[in-house]
Amino acid sequence: AAEWMFDMVKTIAPSARKPNFAGWANDIRLMRERDGRNHRDMCVLFRWACQDNFWSGNVLSPAKLRDKWTQLEINRNKQQAGVTASKPKLDLTNTDWIYGVDL
């Protein structure tokens, strides 16, 4: 899984230096044993992060995947549901606020 993740990183950053695979493998082990994640879920979420405009530059290792797991899941689920953060529409021509004000 560590080597697969590095291959994904190389698609984003071709000049990325080879990581400490033992450290990466340990982070993957921790996700499995302590966090109860399975390899499939790790790979699916890491692939999604690597394809996301924002997260692709921020999640480049198993340690960062583990650290940001909840945020990544929330954002992925929102994206899959078609939910986006929206700002209230601003009507620059609305003058209702001035009614009742004596000038």
UniProtKB/TrEMBL annotation:
Entry superkingdom: Bacteria
Name the UniProt record assigns to this protein: Replication protein
